[in-house]
Structure formats: structure tokens, C-alpha cells
Amino acid sequence: MKVIAIATIKGGVGKTILSTHLAAALARNGQKTLLLDLDPQGHATALAGIDAHPEAFCVGDVLLRESRLKLDDILVRELRPNLDVAPAVLKMAAQERQLYAWALRLKTVRRALDSLERKPDVVVIDCPPHIGGFTEAALHASDLTLAPVPALAGSTQGLEDLRSTWAEMRDGRVGHLACVVNLWDQRTSVTNALVSEMLEASEVPVLDTKIPKSEVVNQAALKQSLVFDHAPTHPVAKAFDRLAQETWQLLCDHDDALDEQDGLSTSDLGQWIHEALEPSRSWAVPAEAMLAADGYSVIQD
Hints:
The chain is an alpha/beta fold.
């Protein structure tokens, strides 16, 4: 079971869109996938197609110290082929504050995942847009943390804080952190060059796949659906599929590296991931990514 956390401390960067579409794309590629919504706003839950009652059982109910619930008890299974969802509701904002008082809070997400009777191939966690109890536990549990970085002014704001927090939360666990360039617009060449320079100056490697900016994403979200349903042949849908393939391959390569290098240190792993992603320093846009003009119910189109 591989765990991917989508985390940021800057709002408006497309975190939830990235989380839901990455999870759906991994499921489309044949991986048994769990989308774990840790954001109390529950946007990933809604985009996945779930209308959750405010008092419905949710991920937060599982993570509380006194809880007797397991993750299996609250899952919405097979929402689409290969995709299960662990939903979030607004009451999780108060639950996160309760979690912060618990000394063992870093272990909660990993403990919940380990309790699953049927382990998925991959878990995608949509974190809250801040550093709190849920995000810290997700950073600790993840094998790969992805930080969405929009190709906009202030894009790298908070990235260094996220990197230092991620390193602190690892608590000796091997894993890695990388950026995903989001809201990419080929027409803003000067902005793209500036963002590229800022990312090159950071210590966080960048994935090759870039997610184009497109109104199709907003149109799908307004219908509480995914691009794969709304416009399955659109270039942005293809970009999400490529992102799923790249992240899955990266995780598999990471496993192979650990098999070859038993006892790999965190610093060594950071160097390995930088070298593995070195080609991503090229900012050429692929041709296909060019811009085109019991508490739950499944949302019907």
C-alpha cells in the first residue's frame, strides 16, 4: 500500500482538484485506490460524487483518540471502478482541534490505514490547506507528498515552510516530497520562466507532468463531477492520466531503490529523488497538453 498526500499551506492552488483527479486517474489505470478526504470542507468528497450529511460518519470519527470506529466502517466503496472514498464533513474542523491535544496524533492516519482489512494499492490524501493535526499525520504517513504549485505570482509562497514541516513530521520514516506545476498556461511565457527559476532555486524537485489551466475543470466542478466524466478526451484529462502514471512509476522506482539500498537515509533519498526528477527542469509543454478553447448519497448527473 503506497500513500500519496497532497498538501499545501497556500489556498487557491487547485489542491482538491488535483487530489480527486489523481485518485480517479490511478483507479482508471487499474490501481485499487482509496481517496482519503482530510479537509473538513469536504470538497474532494463532493467532487468524487458523495453528498454527505453534516453529521455523517467521516474520517475524523475514526481518528479521534476515543473512537471505536475503523476506516472500513465509514468507507463509500466502489464509487467508481477501483475507487473507494473515505469522506469528510465540516465537523472535522472541531475534531482536528481535539486531535492536536493527543501526543500520538502523528500515528493516527497510518494506524487507520493499517487497520483496513483489504489494503488498496494506493491511497491519495487530500489535506487541509494549512498545517494542523490532520496535515501533520498525513505527512507522517505518506510515501510521497505532492505540493501543487500554480504557475502564478506567489506560486512558491510557503513551499519552504511545507518542506521543513514535512521533514520534521517524517520522524525517521523514509519518503519524499515533490512539486506538481498546476494551472499551467503556455501563453504566459514570462511568468512561466520566473516560476521555473524560483522552483529551480528551491530544494523541492518538480514532476515532469504539468496540469494545464482550463475552464473545463471549473465546469466539471460546478456539476460536482470530474473531467473524466465531463470531457474525457480533453487535454487536461490526459494530463491527469499522465500524472497518475508518473507518480505510480516514481513510487515503484522508489521501492526498487530501497530494495537495492537497504537502510537508505532521508538525505540520501532526497538526493535520489532530485536525480530521478532531473529531466523535469525542462519546461517544454507536451503537444497534448496545449490549451483547448446512511448519511451519504451518490450525486446523480
